[in-house]
Every structure is written in structure tokens, then in C-alpha cells.
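[Q] Does anyone have a clean C-alpha cell version of this?
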Amino acid sequence: MDNLPRRGLAIGILLFAAFMDLLDVTIVQVALPAIGRDLDAGSGALEWIVSGYMLAFAAELVTGGRLGDIFGRRRVFLTGIAGFTLVSALAAAAVSAEMLVTLRVAQGLFAALMVPQLLASVQALYAPRERAALFGIIGAVSGIAAVVGPVLGGWLVDADLWGLGWRSIFLVNVPVGIAIVALAAKFVPDTRSARAMRLDLVGVALLVAAIAGFMVPLIEGRELGWPGWLWALVAAGVLFGSWFVAHSVRRMNRDGSALLPMPLFRDRGFSAGIVTQAMFQGAMNAFVLPLILYLQLALSFDALGAGLTLLTFSLGAMVGTGFVVPLVPRLGRVLVTAGALVMAAGTLATLWAVTTGGADFTGWQSAVPMAVAGIGLAMLIIPLVDVALATVPVADAGAASGAYSTFQQLGAAVGVAVSTTVFFAVTGDDWSREHVLEALTASTWISVAGLVIAAGASTLLPGRAAVRAHLDAVRAAEEHDDAVAF
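[A] Here you go.
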């Protein structure tokens, strides 16, 4: 592995593409009010602009990784980044909300091709003992994207470069994407798996059908008045979801290549971790997007001001990471539970600051509670995967990580859909500050409820002894790999 030329450059190129994906989620949220005004988009369309991307990404994430294993990671990555770049350019030229929603779904599909190749390439190019530092860098980049996204998105919208307004948030991907394509074609090696799993296209189709059966009524029900055919879609979602589970069990028994590793759900720690992850992601998005909407629609914040209000949240998460990492082996699941509760407290304190600030609210008034919420996020998310996988066999860690990533995106999309549905249902046609504040309050309590559920689920995670045994098993596996390589 050490003889592979320029492997650090290759990982850097893949990492920058992953940064684009993370940036694209947060940057769009800040621009939603401007998009809504320009395209005359209703609340349902605004929800789909955010959720459509996340759902497409979640549904195809595992398949994207397996395509890289089978056909070569550079080839699949180049397809993903080229498609992502092209669709970004088309999104900048969207002339209707429906067109933008369609393009956002396409963006999510192409992102699902490019993003999984990063971690797979780290595993292919680096020995186990070398990967910890790389994972730390990847985590730091995620934090930077969370900081940069809202601020960059706000600045681009407000700067109105060349009269482009919100369209510039998509156009910024184009020159960066072209550069990544050129660099990846030259410097990223085309690794692939020696024992790649087969594609589970039937599983993908069933999962997409099940998700659509629930999400379409959730997002469109309020505007359409809940007609009977939407309830039929919910019933279809239940049917397709049950079919997906049965198919996955049969597929795992036959060749072990199901989209989601169903036998792992019998592990209490794994299942508790899935619930904790999904509820946390949903809760975070259930608060952030309604807050951005309140600041811009009710208090007339510009996009940059709204983005800067979120800055201390991201900075708190980055600072929290520094002291959380050394505590993971000693505290384990206690950190996760405490983090969910601290984040809930910070979220409620932020709502209190917004409420007491009234029409004169400034972002500074929420700086401390937002930072507290960010620290809680770090306490929760940093140890979660290690603790949740502590009782999962090391050989199944890859499949388990893929399932976590899938539920992370699904949880985020559902959180956006539920909170914004409630937000717009409360506001109705009354956009006075007091009425929009009521909508924000309702959405915030949904977020807090999600964090409380995450805290409860985290108490079922493996204890410290299991975590230490897991870390010892990882170290033993690394020593074995080193001995074999020697």
C-alpha cells in the first residue's frame, strides 16, 4: 500500500467531492426563501427541494458503493461527479419549482455514486493502522462543511453576483466539479473489491416504493387536503416496506448481498444505534430549517444573516469534538445519552432566546445556546458508531456502516418533512411574526421530542466493557493484517 503513488492526493480529491455533497445540503437550506419567491414555489415544493436530494441519496447509497466495488471506484466516481456537476448547472437554470425538484433528486442519485468511493478508497489504499488519522480528517471536513455551507450560501444569495441570486449556489459547483473530474481521471487509482457483493436492484426498487408511499402523503397531504388516494399510498408504503424486509431476509440467506443486512437488526446495540442515529438526524434538521425560515420570513434577516446565526452551532460541534474523542473508551454510551440531552437543552434555550428577543432578536442572543447544542451534537455523534457497532462482528462492520449511512439520510429527510409540514400547517396564510413564531415553536418541540427518543434509545447501546472489547478486536485485526503484509 505504501508504494501506491500519490495516494494522499487521490484521497484529497475524493474528499473534496464529499465536501461538495455536504455543502450542497446546508447551502440550499439558507437559499430556500429566495428560491420560493423567484419560482413561486409552494411549501410542498420547498420541502421536496431539500428532502428529494436526501431521499435519493439514501436510497442509492449502498448501491453506489457496490457499483464501485464491481466496476472500479474511479470509474463510478467520475460518473458521479460528472453527473453531479452537469445537474448542478441545469439546476441553476431551473425555470420552475417542479424542474428544480427533479434536478435535486438527480443530484442526490449522482452524489450516491461519488460519495461512497471515499471510504472504500481509504480502505483500499491504507492499512488499518493508518486509517484512524484519515477518518479524523474526514470528520473535520464534515464540520467545516457545516460551518461554510450556511455562510457561503447566504453570501452568494445576498451578493446577487451578475444578477444570479440563488442560482449561484448551484453554479459554484460547476468549475469545482470540472476540476475534480480532470484531477480524478489522472490521480485517483481505479481500485475495486476482490469479492464484491452483487447488486440488489429489486431491493432498491422496493425501498424507493416504500419511501415514496410514506413521504408523498407526508409532504403533499396538507396542501391537497388529504384525499383518499394519499391514504392508499400510505397503505402501499406499508405493503412495499414489508415486501422489502421479506426480500432482504431471503437475499441475505441466499447470497448475503441484500441492500440492508437484516440479520444485524437482531443485535440490540445495532438496532438501538440505528434508531438513535435516525432520530438525531431528523431532530437536527427539524430545528435548523424552520429556524432559517423564521429568521428570513418573519424577521426579514437576509440570507447571510440567517447563515451566520447558525455559525456558533457548527463551531460548538467542532470544539466539542476535541474533548469528546478521548472520553469515548471511558464513557461510551453515557456520552451519547448526555449529548442528546445537552443538544435538546441547547435547542430549547435557543428557542427561548428567539422568543424573548421578539422583533428585535439578533443572532448574538442565541450564540451561547447554539454553541451548547453544537457541543451536544459532538458528544452524541462522535462515539455513536463505535459504540453501536461494539457487538457487531468486525467482518460485518462495512455492511453495518452502510446501513447507518442510509438511515442517517432517511432520518434527516423525514425530519425535514415532518417539521416543515407542521411549520406550514401552523402558519397557514398568516405570516405575521407572532404566528410564524408559533410555527417555529411547534417544529422545535418536534426536534426536542426526537432528541429525547434518541437519548432513550441510546441507553440500549452496548456498555463500556463491550466497547473496550470491540476496540481490542479492531487492534487485533490490525496487528493480524500487519503480520500478513509483513
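[Q] Thanks! Anything notable?
[A] The radius of gyration is 22 Å.
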